[in-house]
Design brief:
single chain; 562 residues; mainly alpha; two-stranded antiparallel sheet; globular
Length: 562
């Protein structure tokens, strides 16, 4: 006979009616089916906008190569900064379900406006003889649209992966194993959206029209939101824990107030709630760790900590509250090492596309491949490696490492960092060969040289493989190591590293193009040295990997009281 306590989840999740979540009726893959559907459509819309955006800016808004690249990387960067807002609202007040729903509506508004800016006369740039002359109104409408999209994605990005992982109870060993697989399938769903965007949508944008190319993902996003709502009765919801920023600030203030207090040698004497549950909604208790002991002062009880019998949270904090901020501090060095990876990864939508524009894009003599469509090989790489990782790599690695997941999360991230460096090496070699061919033939002023664009396939394949190891590893690592009531915020922190990576790419482009005539990335790439830019990224990636190895050796994993 099934015990009553086995009917409900033990991680504090509830259903949509705020009743304890029933294991049989909610969660696991039956809920994730709807969540993954939302993610596929959102990624379809995002990549349908960003994958070919550099060409839209060049053709329709008249921006040069360097300026178009900077607009794209700044847009991508903003898409990774805005999750800080969405994550704060999700963890503190709204919960992940309502945050996804509300920001999806904003996303759809942005996609609709973008479609209108590419379709309706008056806000669509007018073009004559292949040259467009956008007005200030047309430019403004376009920028409002893409930054509405950036705001909308800010509520979706930090919440969807965490919301999906919430559907598996950490206290149930069977469900915990399934959760690890969820992150692989989550990234696969991203790749499916990217595959459709980079092949079908890019072709539609190039061959049919930008209005159709932007309109189709707008409709897909609206359908996805309805699909997301259909799955409501199956979802498990984590209760918002209140403002994580205030809790962290309370620990810092309480520690400074007790700067002259010495924590006891017996750490069990530090303050913690007496009952089994933490006083932070939606969070389990955390075990004390020895590092950053100055913060332990905030959990030392003194005579002045209570006012009228109640604890003053600005003078006395629980061990769990202290460990929350310690967890964030421990994550920061790993987080910093994620920045350079994104800088390399972002080249897929900028310099890779510009490089491809100069190459022979014809297949079979008549069919011309849009350069941005080569991202399809990155997506194919992701699909192949996700399936291979789950079915072959994990069982094989487990024999030698003894680890249930084959590799630790940090090992998985590190492998991806190495592979991303190989992608930059591949891109650098292709560009060096391309420039050498131009030099030999004197093709400096030839717009398209007779060198197949399929030379780029290895660099896309490597970057896709790197994503399977590093990006999935990062998402799983930050979810596992984040305090329960700060998981959306930690996902946003990870996305912030991606934003800084995009901004770093934009900064590097600015530096290497300061000399308009002799810069590395010139308007005529045949007279530039894009290969130098790729070699610079190789050097920075190697330095970043060495630092990551040191950080990984020193990292202390989070411990939860079950």
């Amino acid at each position: 006979m099934e015990r009553a306590d086995d009917v409900y989840t033990k991680d504090g999740t509830t259903d949509i009616t705020k009743a304890p979540a029933n294991k049989k009726k909610t969660g696991t893959w039956k809920a994730c089916f709807f969540i993954l559907g939302e993610e596929i459509s959102e990624r379809l819309a995002y990549f349908g906008t960003s994958a070919n955006l550099v060409n839209y800016l060049h053709q329709m808004l008249g921006l040069n190569n360097a300026a178009a690249s900077k607009v794209v990387t700044n847009f991508q960067g903003t898409c990774y900064v805005s999750p800080l807002l969405g994550a704060f609202l999700a963890d503190a007040y709204l919960g992940r379900y309502w945050t996804i729903a509300i920001f999806s509506i904003i996303y759809i508004m942005g996609m609709t406006l973008l479609t209108m800016s590419a379709s309706i006369v008056g806000i669509k740039p007018s073009c004559h003889d292949g040259i467009c002359h956008p007005t200030e109104l047309e430019k403004t409408t376009f920028y409002i649209a893409i930054y509405l999209i950036a705001l909308g994605t800010g509520g979706i990005k930090p919440c969807v992966s965490s919301f999906g992982a919430d559907q598996f109870d950490d206290n149930d060993e069977v469900e915990k194993i399934k959760k690890s697989s969820f992150f692989n399938w989550f990234y696969l769903s991203i790749s499916i959206g990217a595959l459709i965007a980079s092949s079908v949508l890019v072709w539609i944008q190039t061959s049919v029209g930008w209005g159709w190319g932007f309109g189709i993902p707008a409709v897909a996003m609206a359908i996805a939101l309805m699909f997301f709502f259909v799955g409501t009765r199956f979802y498990r919801l984590q209760t918002p824990g209140g403002s994580p920023l205030i809790r962290m600030l309370q620990v810092l203030v309480a520690s400074m107030r007790k700067w002259d207090v010495k924590p006891p040698a017996d750490k069990s004497l530090l303050y913690e709630t007496a009952n089994e549950e933490s006083n932070i909604k939606g969070s389990r208790k955390l075990t004390h760790t020895d590092k950053f002991s100055f913060l332990d002062k905030s959990a030392v009880e003194t005579a002045r900590d209570k006012v009228n019998g109640s604890v003053n949270p600005w003078r006395l904090c629980t061990v769990t509250q202290v460990e929350e901020i310690k967890s964030i501090i421990r994550l920061l060095p790993v987080w910093a090492c994620c920045i350079m990876f994104t800088t390399a990864y972002s080249q897929m939508n900028t310099t890779f596309v510009l490089q491809g524009n100069t190459m022979d894009r014809y297949m079979g003599g008549n069919f011309k491949i849009p350069s941005a469509s080569l991202i399809v090989f990155e997506t194919i790489s992701v699909i192949l490696w996700v399936l291979t990782y789950d079915q072959l790599i994990i069982p094989f690695a487990r024999k030698y490492t003894g680890h249930a997941r084959g590799f630790t999360q940090l090992q998985r991230i590190g492998i991806g960092l190495v592979i991303s460096t190989l992608s930059m090496v591949s891109a650098g070699v292709v560009e060096a060969v391309r420039l050498d061919y131009i030099k030999q033939k004197g093709y400096y002023d030839v717009k398209t040289i007779p060198m197949s664009i399929f030379w780029q396939v290895p660099q896309y394949f490597f970057i896709g493989c790197a994503g399977v190891f590093t990006l999935i590893g990062q998402v799983e690592f930050f979810y596992d190591q984040a305090p329960d009531a700060m998981r959306s915020l930690c996902s946003a922190l990870l996305l912030m590293a991606a934003a800084l990576g995009s901004y770093l790419s934009s900064f590097l482009v600015t530096i290497v193009t300061r000399n308009k005539k002799f810069g590395w990335i010139t308007e005529n790439l045949n007279k530039g040295h894009l290969d130098y830019f790729f070699w610079l990224l190789v050097i920075l990636s190697i330095i970043n990997f060495i630092v990551f190895l040191l950080v990984s050796r020193l990292y202390v994993y989070k411990k939860v009281i079950h």
